[in-house]
Specification:
Its EC number is 5.1.1.1. It contains eleven helices and 19 strands. It is α/β, with parallel strands linked by helices and 379 residues long. The chain folds into two domains: 216 residues, TIM Barrel, CATH 3.20.20; 126 residues, Lyase, Ornithine Decarboxylase, Chain A, domain 1, CATH 2.40.37.10. The strands form three sheets. It has a nine-stranded mixed beta sheet with strand order 11-14-17-16-15-18-10-1-19. Strands 2-3-4-5-6-7-8-9 form an eight-stranded parallel barrel, surrounded by six helices. It has a two-stranded antiparallel ribbon with strand order 12-13. Bound molecules: pyridoxal-5'-phosphate.
Length: 379
């Protein structure tokens, strides 16, 4: 099959990573976090693979993302946690989507349950220190009281308590212990208030991998499912994870140029000697960060680096004076993934994190789903 540029998504790698985490986390359940189109990998195929491999829940930021999964036929328990007053709470309740509630949402969710003629399933969120969403410890008991009243009225059921960690990628930081203390207190208060909790959950990928004491009843697996490491000093391989995305394109042009040739907008790069330039047809319109400098690529199995600015549709690679121009147009360029550099190296080049490198690959890049070698027995 012919192709010009594509993001290959290895679903066998997704399954491998889910199985590995499910083993680590058992008896805790695994929620596959597939927000943001599964970090750029494609929410529906990833959700299917994750559930096949043992995940039992799906996690979304937006209700609209969860609704899209319901529309596609997914019936697994699903939670969405980031709302605005315009969120489709009523539809979420009708479609059996659990709702994270930090405070202000409670009245709206209860009203939506009334109009949906069905109780909402609610996970109350405690802010244990991240300072983003979640109820402050000061307001927690008031929130529990309000939720209990609605539950009494049959408008909702509090089925979960959850929180989000701020520094779990640095496992020795004391703030994680402080957050866990606050979480245990919040859970105990909820149980004392009479709620019969199905799931207590607070672990993201770094916590899953480094802090078993964060697992509780369920872990929320994002980055690790995609095979990437959340830690500065550990690679995917160190963690026995398999990166699932491979970003490739075909060389779009090749030419030899003299010393002093300026490259790309602003002419921020000039060749130091006669050299061969290869043009890669991926740019910031495809999600390659414009901030990247010396981004790594593999061509013909060798490492080269981008030079000059990344443009909307393309960037240039200086291949040096010794490469053969013959056959170069159309050759495969691997930005990251199997047989190429890692998303971590691109993150390094662009001053960001691997999470962003995969998530920002834009819809212009076709996703192609493949079955690699990480089968049930081929580990
Ligand atoms: C995105 C997200 C996760 C997943 O985090 P990873 O580090 O990618 O595993 C878990 N919980 C919440 C609330 C999130 O927003």
């Amino acid at each position: 099959m012919s192709w010009e540029r594509r993001a290959e998504i290895d679903l066998s790698a997704i399954r491998h990573n889910v199985r590995r985490v499910a083993e680590l986390a058992a008896p805790a359940q695994v929620m596959a976090v597939v927000k943001a189109d599964a970090y750029g990998h494609g929410a529906l195929p990833v959700a299917r693979a994750a559930l096949e491999a043992g995940a039992t829940w799906l996690g979304f930021a937006h209700v609209s993302e969860a609704l899209a999964a319901r529309d596609a036929g997914f019936t697994a328990p699903a939670l969405a946690w980031l709302h605005t007053p315009d969120t489709a709470f009523s539809e979420a309740i009708s479609r059996n989507i659990d709702l994270g509630v930090s405070g202000w949402e409670l009245d709206r969710v209860a009203a939506a349950a009334e109009s949906a003629a069905r109780p909402a399933r609610v996970h109350l969120k405690i802010d244990t220190g991240l300072g983003r969403n979640g109820c402050t410890p000061e307001n927690w008991e008031a929130l529990l009281g309000a939720a209990a009243a609605y539950q009494e009225d049959g408008l909702l059921r509090v089925v979960g308590v959850f929180s989000h960690l701020s520094v779990a990628d640095e496992p020795d930081r004391v703030e994680t212990d402080q957050q866990l203390d606050a979480f245990r207190t919040a859970v105990a208060l909820a149980e004392n208030a009479g709620f019969d909790l199905e799931v207590r959950h607070t672990a993201n990928t770094p916590a899953i991998l480094s802090r078993p004491d964060t697992h509780f009843d369920m872990v929320r697996l994002g980055l690790g499912m995609y095979g990437l490491s959340p830690f500065r000093d550990q690679t995917s391989e160190d963690l026995s994870l398999r990166p699932a995305m491979r970003l490739v394109a075909r060389v779009a042009n090749a030419k030899t140029v003299p010393a002093g040739q300026g490259v790309s907008y602003g002419l921020t790069y000039r060749t130091g000697h006669p050299t061969l330039l290869a043009l890669v047809p991926l740019g910031y319109g495809d999600g390659v960060p414009r901030s990247a400098t010396s981004g790594p690529v593999h061509i013909r199995g060798r490492l080269f680096r981008s030079c000059g600015r990344v443009a909307m549709d393309q960037f240039v690679v200086d291949m040096g004076p010794d490469e053969d121009i013959a056959g170069l147009v159309g050759a495969e360029v691997v930005l990251f993934g199997d047989g190429g550099p890692s998303a971590d190296e691109w993150a390094e080049s662009a001053g960001t994190i691997n999470y962003e490198i995969v998530t920002r690959v834009s819809p212009r890049v076709p996703r192609v789903y493949v079955e690699g070698s990480w089968g049930e027995t081929g580990e």
